[in-house]
Each structure stands twice: as C-alpha cells, then as structure tokens.
Amino acid sequence: MCCLSKGLCAPVGSLLAGPADVIDDARVQRQRLGGGMRQAGVLAAAGLVALRSMVERLHDDHRRARVLADAVAERWPDTRDAVADVRTNIVVFPHCNADAAVAHLAAHGVLAGTIAPGVIRLVTHHDVDDDGVERARTAIATAP
After folding, report:
1. From CA 112, how far away is CA 98, in angstroms rounded?
2. What share of the chain is helix, strand, coil (3-state, %, to 5)?
3. 10 Å Cβ neighbour count for 125?
4. What distance, in Å, lies between the first and last C-alpha atoms of the chain?
5. Band of pLDDT at residue 138, cut at 50, 70 and 90
6. What digits encode the pLDDT tens for the residues 62-108?
7. How far apart are CA 123 and CA 35, in angstroms?
8. CB of 71 within 8 A of CB of 52?
C-alpha cells in the first residue's frame, strides 16, 4: 500500500497492489466501510499528477528528515537508536515530556505532533524547505 498524500502532495488517495484475491477482498471491505465514491475522477487526476511530478523530489524530503533526525539525536542522545534508521520523510522518537517539547517547537514556528503518549513525530514534505529545516534544527537544539 502506498499513500499518495503523505509525500506526493495529493489531497487524498492510496494505492494497493497485490494478488487478485487480496484486491477483490479490499474492494469488498472498502464498500463495507463506506469507501465507495462517486465522482472520484477528480481525486484520481490529482493522484496521477502527484505520481508524475512529485516522485523525483522525494529525495529532498528524505534528506531533510535525516537532518532533523540527526538534530534530535544530538539534542537527546538517548533517542539515537530510535532515529538511526530514518530513511523516509518521517522522524519518530520517544520523549519524556513530549507535550512540552511540541509546545516549544510550535512557539518557534515548527509544527510537530505526538502519535502516542511520549512519542513525537516530525514530517518533511513539499512545503518544508531547507530554511524550515534549519528553523526546526534551531528549535530542537533548545527544546526541553
């Protein structure tokens, strides 16, 4: 499964690949959950644009996330193992006071979130440039 909105800037959409029986079952489950859509062509068009024009720039997001992961490991050395394998645009790490750290980052213009108690997530994407990553690095360096 691949989500088109996470790194490719499509408004919504995911792709599922697999054997015919898996796809057939997924279609049934989608309908059961109310996933049938009328007029889905507009969204499909956005997905096609994303696949055709956004894939080549994913390496920028991944590089920027690696910079953030390194900043996290430098600020909180006990997170080194958690961020050592960051290879995509998502950086997830534990923090003993995640809410305070997220609030500190927000006060410095950096949006972050928690995905579980004590777990922070940072995501790079099309709207995060090198200046934004530098702002985040500076905020991380002074975060509680």
Report:
1. 10
2. 55, 10, 35
3. 20
4. 36
5. very high
6. 999 999 999 999 999 999 999 999 999 999 999 999 999 999 999 99
7. 27
8. no
Contact 137, 112 (CB under 8 A): no
Q: Is the pLDDT confidence value at 37 over 70?
A: no
Rg (CA), the chain: 18
Confidence category of residue 8, pLDDT binned at 50, 70, 90: confident
User: Shortest CA distance to 91 belongs to which of 107, 58, 60, 113?
Assistant: 113
Give the ranges where the chain is alpha helix by DSSP (H): 20-32, 41-53, 58-75, 80-83, 98-107, 130-141
Q: Is 41 exposed, middle or buried (0-12, 13-18, 19+ CB in 10 A)?
A: exposed
Residue of 13, 10, 29, 32 lying closest to 21 (CA atoms): 29
Provide the token pair at 17: 């690949």
User: What is the value of pTM for the model shown?
Assistant: 0.82
- Judge contact between 125 and 55, C-beta under 8 A: no
- Per the prediction, the chain carries an average pLDDT of 92
Q: Which residue has the tokens 């049934």?
A: 28
